[in-house]
Design brief:
The protein is of the alpha/beta class. Helices cover about 35% and strands about 25% of the residues. The protein is built from 9 helices and 10 strands. Strand 7, helix 6 and strand 8 form a beta-alpha-beta unit. The chain is globular.
Length: about 230
């Protein structure tokens, strides 16, 4: 079982923002997707989840093409996309936010167990929570849906480093339940530390695809991959 991209090109405006990108996500594996700002990382996640269409290439789940799937159908197939900006429902309580995706009480309980900090805030409107707590709600809600693959886009935006460091072990926990994770993160070194695999996108193309540890341990390789 895998999620596979083969020579995916995405065009926006006057030309392609991604060109011939290939990668494969596997269950229980964290893949760090890193690169300079504007390289096309967010567009790649949006192409996988169906926010934007692809110009060419293919996206397959377990060997079946998803290229014509709607965003909802991809979600039902097990693709969860946590976009930038902490997409909460501010007037709903923490419990109500999680109940939107949790199909069973067990799903709900397992999601809350990932974030014990939320237990005392279950009946609080999410707009009253701190930025870190709101991000926990977003992650817990995504996990409660029991996805097969989780796409995470810049979770650290607007968060204090200490709060983001609290979230990284949770991503590792989620992957250990068998979920494949594609992690886009501005703090490349932190993402690479918890990742198994890594992909560097530079100017819309793959500059490196391989072991996260190899990339983390080789500053020159990382710099070369960023420069394209």
């Amino acid at each position: 079982m895998s999620l596979k991209l083969d020579n995916v090109t995405v065009s926006r405006g006057i030309g392609p923002v991604l060109s011939n990108v290939s990668l494969e996500l596997n269950p229980g594996q964290i893949t760090a997707l890193v690169g300079p700002n504007g390289a096309g990382k967010t567009s790649l996640l949006e192409a996988i989840s169906g926010v934007v269409g692809i110009s060419s290439g293919s996206i397959e789940l377990d060997g079946e093409s998803m290229s014509k799937y709607s965003r909802r159908r991809r979600s039902l197939a097990g693709i969860a996309h946590v976009e930038q900006g902490r997409m909460i429902f501010p007037s709903l309580t923490v419990k109500e936010n999680l109940k939107l995706t949790a199909k069973t009480q067990t799903d709900f309980d397992e999601a809350i167990a990932m974030f014990p900090e939320l237990e005392k805030r279950l009946n609080s409107e999410t707009i009253l929570l701190s930025g870190g707590e709101q991000q926990m709600v977003v992650l817990a809600r995504a996990f409660a849906a029991k996805p097969r693959f989780l796409l995470l886009d810049e979770m650290s935006l607007g968060l204090a480093p200490v709060v983001f460091l609290r979230l990284l072990p949770v991503i590792e926990q989620i992957s250990k339940t068998g979920v494949g994770v594609l992690l886009v993160e501005q703090f490349a070194h932190l993402a690479l530390k918890i990742a198994h695999d890594s992909v560097v996108i530079s100017s819309g193309r793959v500059g490196y695809h391989g072991s996260a540890k190899t990339l983390l341990d080789d500053e020159q390789l990382l710099k070369k991959a960023y420069l394209g």
